[in-house]
Amino acid sequence: MNSGYTINNEGVLNNYAIEPRMYIDETNRAGFTEFAEKLNGRLAMIGFVSLLATEAITGHGLIWWLTNI
């Protein structure tokens, strides 16, 4: 059990914080990676569903919205 303090060999309490273990994520999150492809696909799906919902609610499609601005 980690209580946030330590006791040294002489029985003296150490009030300083215990540093957590460092974790470094080595995965590449830039460029043409699997993460970028998933993010792009999810954003495209959100946009497409939003377009369909807008058309269903208003009764006008994307072309009508673009020509009547």
Record keyword descriptors for this entry:
two-stranded antiparallel sheet; 69 residues; 45% helix; mainly alpha
Spatial order of strands in the largest sheet: 1-2
Kindly estimate the percentage of residues that lie in beta strands according to DSSP. Answer: 5-15%
Based on secondary structure, the structural category is mainly alpha
Helix content: 40-55%
Count of structural domains? 1
Q: So what's the overall shape?
A: elongated
Distance between the termini: 64 Å
Number of helices: 2
Order of H and E elements? EEHH
Residue stretches low in confidence (pLDDT < 50, at least 5 long) are none
Q: How would you sum up the major sheet?
A: 2 strands, antiparallel
User: Can you give the mean pLDDT?
Assistant: 81
* Radius of gyration, whole Å: 27 Å
In total, how many beta strands? 2
What is the topology?
Elements: E1 6-7, E2 13-14, H1 34-58, H2 62-67
Antiparallel strand pairs: 1-2
Describe the structure.
The structure is a single chain. It is built from 2 helices and 2 strands, in the order ββαα. By secondary structure, it is mostly helical. It has one domain (6-67). Strand 1 and strand 2 (13-14) form a beta hairpin.
